[in-house]
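Hi V.,

Quick status before I head out on leave. The structure for the redesign project is tokenized and pasted below; the design run finished overnight.
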């Protein structure tokens, strides 16, 4: 099926697709943004709550801090990494296999110590959400706990939704393109019919040729009425011309006969 670039058919289809794509992208962006923000907020709140739990759960009478950390992580569904520090920010224990240069920030330690509230931030490389909180033992602050959670682990549903929307968008675009062509064809079918009828008009059959008007109030109906009015005026002009020629021939017949 050929579509001429400069045709009305092409332009209507193009504008239809352009509006569809714009609306789809706008709605999808809003949905994805809100879904991502909600997932991040839930992850931050979960990390904040866990920082309170681990802050009160660590037993300083047990020097196996690495084992305590691994035991706690093993009881969690989320992919957590934990580091424990004393009051001087010296490392006491860490999750098994967790490596990386994620030092305890001085401002984070000062914030949680002064306000007794978790300090939440994002790692500079953007891989982790991090929470810092106090470590308590016998109602005394013994150090700090630093919890890490991969952003990807809390955004997996977001990535899945993104893929679904992308696939749905491509499929919808194809469907919208085909539907646009069909709708435009249906819209232009009366015009094509009018063009076919007008192209077949002959002066000898002008009085028998008029366009059918199904709905006189829409654009196609008004166009058909306008063309019919034009055909009426042309028919009147042709009739007047024929009458003039007939009268002229009659008036000239007698002088010509006399001259002959």
């Amino acid at each position: 099926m050929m579509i001429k670039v400069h045709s009305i058919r092409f332009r209507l289809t193009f504008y239809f697709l352009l509006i569809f794509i714009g609306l789809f992208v706008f709605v999808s962006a809003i949905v994805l943004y809100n879904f991502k923000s909600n997932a991040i907020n839930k992850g931050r709140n979960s990390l904040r709550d866990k920082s309170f739990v681990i802050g009160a759960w660590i037993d300083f009478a047990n020097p196996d801090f690495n084992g305590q950390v691994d035991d706690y992580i093993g009881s969690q569904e989320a992919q957590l990494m934990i580091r424990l520090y004393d009051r001087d920010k010296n490392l006491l224990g860490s999750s098994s296999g967790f490596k990386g240069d994620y030092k305890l920030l001085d401002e984070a330690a000062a914030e949680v110590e002064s306000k007794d509230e978790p300090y939440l931030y994002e790692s500079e490389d953007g891989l982790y959400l991090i929470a810092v909180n106090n470590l308590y033992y016998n109602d005394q602050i013994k150090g700090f706990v630093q919890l890490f959670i991969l952003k990807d682990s809390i955004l997996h549903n977001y990535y899945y939704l993104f893929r679904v929307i992308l696939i749905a968008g491509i499929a919808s675009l194809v469907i919208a393109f085909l539907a646009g062509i069909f709708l435009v064809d249906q819209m232009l079918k009366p015009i094509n019919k009018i063009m076919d009828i007008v192209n077949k008009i002959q002066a000898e059959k002008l009085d028998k040729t008029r366009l059918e008007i199904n709905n006189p109030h829409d654009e196609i109906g008004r166009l058909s009425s306008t063309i019919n009015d034009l055909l009426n005026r042309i028919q009147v002009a042709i009739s007047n011309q024929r009458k003039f020629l007939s009268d002229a021939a009659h008036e000239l017949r007698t002088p010509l006969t006399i001259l002959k």
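Above is the designed sequence. The chain has a mean pLDDT of 82.

G. will cover questions while I'm gone.

Best,
W.
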